[in-house]
Specification:
- The complex is a heterodimer.
- Chain A is α/β, with parallel strands linked by helices.
- Chain A is built from 14 helices and 18 strands.
- A five-stranded parallel sheet of chain A has the order 4-3-2-5-6, sandwiched between helices. Chain A has a five-stranded parallel sheet with strand order 16-15-14-17-18. In chain A, strands 10-9-8-11 form a four-stranded parallel sheet, covered by helices on one side.
- Chain B has a seven-stranded mixed sheet.
- Chain B is of the alpha/beta class.
- Chain B is built from eight helices and seven strands; from the N terminus they run E-H-H-H-E-H-E-H-E-H-E-E-E-H-H.
- In chain B, strand 2, helix 4 and strand 3 form a beta-alpha-beta unit.
- The chains are: A alpha/beta, B alpha/beta.
- At the A-B interface, helix 1, helix 2 and helix 4 of A face helix 1, helix 5, helix 7 and helix 8 of B.
Chain lengths: 421, 166
């Protein structure tokens, strides 16, 4: 934040004006453009810093949504926005990582609450509102309060069948949905090294559900390997330069840094967890709710729609028939393609699952699987608020992708290890 | 006398943006104030939208406005005539959106503990105090840089005024 506000040093509580390097928006870009047009600024100040992804209602389910997308394309053309990703490329948070738009040591502000996501790459990233994004488009700047930091030290290893989704649900249950309000959450400890790239993003993404301003972890060998392999595919022309740029920008915690709070979690003590209706911090061990009948499952979103998640679901359903509807929506076209190459998509289709086009899907109740009154959904998403996926008296349980898949095989919440045959 | 008088709607802890303004409308209702007002608090209190009067205030518990960054969750309350939200604490993005849209937000757990729906309270912004049932409740004033934005009616009017000055 000091670098982004051109100061030598900042401290918690300071209000600083920063110039974010990337400003994210998605299907809300037309609404932001309408606000922008109320300002006397004709041109976006730094068009190269904008990143716009169509992902929330894709392909458009209604003519109204289609008109919204058309307005965004027109704005992108007028303002010369290069970082524009069309319908089908995937969810903003996944796409911007895959495309190397953002990486270690960079700053991002986004008109999306899960903008905490990018901390898994060692970036500073936080969610803001639409008017604020319009203000940055016009001026390049925005005020922020420097957050206090909560340190979460992870040690040990998960038991088989336990994931970072279970860890985040467990943490949110313990610390509550406002446990980190206004704070930066920093993950460290020897437990981090054993976490896969896909599973790390779950942690920083879902810190939004604990009220955090941002979440981060220092880049390590796992991060660099993922960036190297991914950028080679998405930016064959400049991947070496981009990786070199990220290496020069990477930031690491100061030794002896001050932390407002310090928690220690032994990963081996985490068990499979579920968030019950209608709040993310209404948490139970899976074992306590394992008989709850479900009508439908959803695997996808910026939280748990990546290759590793699709692999986990495919492994459960392979050779089985689903007793319940299962909607699977990959987080990006890359995740979909890799899952198809690996045979996971075939496994899911054979078992009876429905595959949707990459995007946010029914997560916020717009399309592709909204719930009827009274329906019970088990979902790999990040929010289970009343009415979130459609009708206000539908119920949403949040769990890991493997638990969602297993529950659609059994017809009720269940741990995959407890499935008979 | 800078005191203003307001009728209270009281709600609990962790009221999230999905029940303040449902996600299913976020890309179809953007700026139409009549529509925004009609769906305000739809999944929390179906009686609110039709009975709310201009100048009413919402008083709520911890973590008001957690969840999505959708600005309609602020704008729908402004459209419904809500003068201020007074809460024990606010979710971060909601708090920012409120300031940047010109909705008054006051953190004051002491007052929240006392009042109920239908009560009347008084707000004195200059003195950073509220009054209820003969007692004064102080609240922390906003930092100066932030107060300038609220006073201008939000970040967009603030930037327009600044551009006019130049």
């Amino acid at each position: 934040m000091a670098r982004a506000s051109q100061r030598n040093r900042v401290k918690p509580g300071d209000i600083v004006v920063i110039e974010p390097e990337i400003v994210l928006s998605h299907d809300n870009s037309a609404a932001i453009a309408a606000i922008f047009q109320q300002l006397p600024h004709d041109r976006v100040k730094y068009p190269e810093r904008l990143a716009i992804t169509l992902d929330h209602a894709v392909p458009p389910p209604t003519a109204k949504h289609a008109r919204n997308h058309a307005r965004i394309r027109e704005f992108v053309r007028q303002q010369g926005i290069a970082n524009f990703f069309e319908v089908g490329r995937g969810i903003c948070h996944q796409v911007l990582c895959e495309e190397g738009i953002i990486g270690p040591g960079m700053t991002l502000l986004g008109a999306d609450s899960h903008s905490t996501h990018y901390g898994w790459l060692g970036a500073f990233s936080a969610g803001i509102g639409r008017s604020e994004v319009a203000a940055i488009w016009a001026t390049g700047q925005l005020w922020l309060r420097v957050p206090e930091t909560m340190r979460i030290e992870l040690t040990g290893k998960f038991e088989t069948g336990v994931t970072t989704k279970d860890l985040t649900i467990s943490m949110i249950g313990r610390l509550s949905s406002d446990g980190a309000t206004y704070m930066a959450v920093e993950f460290d400890g020897d437990g981090v090294a054993g976490l896969s790239p896909d599973s790390r993003a779950v942690l920083t993404n879902m810190m939004a559900e604990m009220g955090a301003k941002n979440a981060c972890m220092a880049p390590d060998e796992v991060t660099w390997r993922w960036l190297s392999e991914t950028l080679r595919r998405t930016r064959p022309e400049d991947h070496v330069d981009r990786l070199g740029f990220f290496r020069g920008r990477a930031l690491f915690p100061d030794s002896g840094a001050d932390y407002a709070l310090h928690h220690h979690i032994d990963l081996s003590e985490i068990e499979p967890m579920v968030s019950c209706p209608h709040n993310v911090d209404n948490v139970q061990p899976l074992s306590a709710v394992a008989t709850r009948a479900v009508d439908v499952g959803f695997i996808g979103t910026c939280t748990n729609g990546r290759l590793e998640d699709l692999a986990a679901a495919a492994k459960i359903v392979r050779g089985r028939r689903l007793r319940r509807r299962l909607i699977v929506i990959p987080a990006s076209s890359m995740a979909l393609r890799d899952a198809a190459d690996a045979g996971y998509i075939a496994d899911l289709i054979e078992a009876g699952a429905t595959i949707g086009s990459p995007g946010c899907g029914p997560c916020m109740g717009v399309h592709q699987g909204v719930l009827a009154p009274g329906e019970v959904c088990v979902s790999s998403a990040n929010r289970n608020f009343r009415g979130r996926m459609g009708e206000p008296d539908a119920e949403i349980y949040l769990a890991s992708p493997a638990v969602v898949a297993a529950s659609c095989v059994a017809g009720h919440l269940i741990h995959p290890a407890d499935l008979s045959i | 006398m800078t005191r203003t008088r307001h009728r209270v709607w009281k709600y609990g802890d962790n009221v999230n943006t999905d029940v303040i303004f449902p996600g299913k409308y976020t890309y179809t209702i953007e700026t139409d104030t009549a529509q925004l007002a009609r769906h305000a608090l739809e999944d929390l209190d179906p009686s609110f939208a039709s009975a709310a009067q201009r100048g009413d205030v919402i008083v709520a518990g911890r973590n008001w406005g957690n969840g999505s960054s959708r600005e309609q969750a602020v704008k729908c309350l402004i459209a419904a005539g809500v003068h201020a939200v007074i809460a024990s604490s606010f979710a971060r993005i909601y708090y920012r959106n409120a300031i940047n849209s010109g909705l008054l937000v006051i953190t004051c757990p002491e007052l929240v503990a006392q009042v109920e729906t239908g009560d009347e309270i008084e707000i004195d912004l200059d003195a950073a105090q509220m009054h209820y049932s003969g007692r004064a409740y102080s609240f922390p004033p906003l930092p100066e840089q932030v107060r300038e934005i609220v006073d201008a009616g939000g970040i967009i009017p603030y930037l327009r005024a600044k551009a006019r000055e130049q």
